[in-house]
Design goal:
This protein has 293 residues and is α/β, with parallel strands linked by helices. It has helices spanning 34-42, 80-92, 111-120, 133-141, 170-173, 189-198, 228-235, 252-255, 263-272, 282-292, and strands at residues 19-23, 45-48, 65-68, 71-72, 75-76, 97-101, 125-128, 153-158, 178-183, 206-211, 219-224, 241-245. A five-stranded parallel sheet has the order 3-2-6-1-7, with helices on both faces. Strands 8-9-12-10-11 form a five-stranded mixed sheet, with helices on both faces. The structure holds S-adenosylmethionine. The site of S-adenosylmethionine has 23 residues, from helix 4 and strand 12.
């Protein structure tokens, strides 16, 4: 039980504050839900992870304290037990806490462990779901996760296990007519591609690696199970990266609409238009430019 070992002793005065466990989405601040924004603005303290997109923290109240509790791959900057204790202690001190997590807190996010600790100390909490990396990244990369002609199901897995190994249910991942989405798979990319082929996927199966999806740093590398590891190494993709494997990846070439490389230019063009009513949203303008090239 994750709540075990968390000290709950309550000071004599006052009531405990509430902890809002908030999914901050995959990066683009505009993908926050209305409730996430409202809860974030109510918080006295914001405890946030390293995958919180630029611009999201700025939406918190200006006087709110900000505490970084991020982790990068296996380098844990704050152990989970310490994060649990921090949330409990802040709430027991009467603070209203926004616990911001990338994507959705219950999707490869250890949100369950954090609220177990809160529940074991009788602290009120609320969970605000977020757009997962899989949803956001696939949308911004123009890769529909299911498609009647290509994939009737989708499977999600994490490519980084607690003990550092990559030991997945390869048979389940390699099934045909399915899209496989693999989180935290950059370090194990070569092993993942090799094992999928060994378990029956054709080496020519389309595969994509998407870095920092939904943000200005988004980069999409597409290839096949055979070629993707070398292509990713050549480009030098950096975490966070999401892997998408399956026939749907072929659609990227035709359906990609988000053009981060054109955003700066689109923003300056939009600024130059004489009246505000004529101005187009830069994301839309960049997308239009991409389609015209
Ligand atoms: C600890 S998991 C968090 C997942 C999150 N809770 C969710 O609902 O998507 C972190 C991994 O999510 C993926 N990820 C998160 N944001 C991403 C982004 N903007 N672009 C690509 N991958 C992302 C990467 O695989 C990263 O290593």
């Amino acid at each position: 039980m994750q709540g075990e070992g968390t000290a709950c002793s309550r000071p004599d005065h006052g009531r405990a504050g509430t902890v809002y466990l908030i999914g901050a989405g995959p990066g683009d601040p505009e993908l926050l839900t209305l409730r996430a924004l409202r809860r974030l603005q109510q918080a006295d303290v914001v405890v946030y992870d390293n995958l919180i997109g630029d611009g999201i923290l700025e939406l918190a109240a200006s006087g709110a304290e900000r505490v970084y509790a991020g982790k990068r791959c296996s380098r844990h900057s704050m152990p989970q037990a310490e994060i649990n204790q921090l949330l409990v202690s802040l709430a027991l001190a009467g603070k209203c806490v926004a616990r911001l997590k990338g994507g959705d807190p219950f999707f490869f996010g250890r949100g369950g462990e954090e609220i177990e600790a809160l529940a074991s100390c009788g602290i009120p909490y609320e969970v605000v779901p977020g757009i997962t990396a899989a949803n956001g990244v696939a949308s911004y990369a123009g890769i529909p996760l299911t498609h009647r002609e290509h994939a009737q199901s989708c499977i999600f897995a994490t490519g980084h296990l607690k003990d550092g190994t990559v030991n997945l249910d390869w048979e389940a991942l390699a099934r045909p007519h399915q899209t496989a989405v693999i989180y935290m798979g950059l370090g194990g990319l070569q092993v993942i591609c090799r094992q999928l082929v060994r378990h029956g996927m054709p080496a020519a199966t389309p595969a994509a690696a998407v870095q920092s999806g939904t943000t200005q740093d988004q980069r999409v590398v597409t290839g096949t199970l055979d070629t993707l590891p070398d292509l990713v190494a050549a480009v030098g993709l950096k975490s966070p990266v999401l892997l998408i494997v399956g026939e749907v990846v072929k659609l990227h070439r035709r359906l990609a609409w988000f053009a981060p490389e054109l955003l700066d230019r689109a923003a300056s063009i939009s600024e130059c238009l004489p009246s505000e009513s004529q101005r187009l949203d830069p994301v839309m303008l960049a997308s239009m430019q991409r389609h015209n090239t």
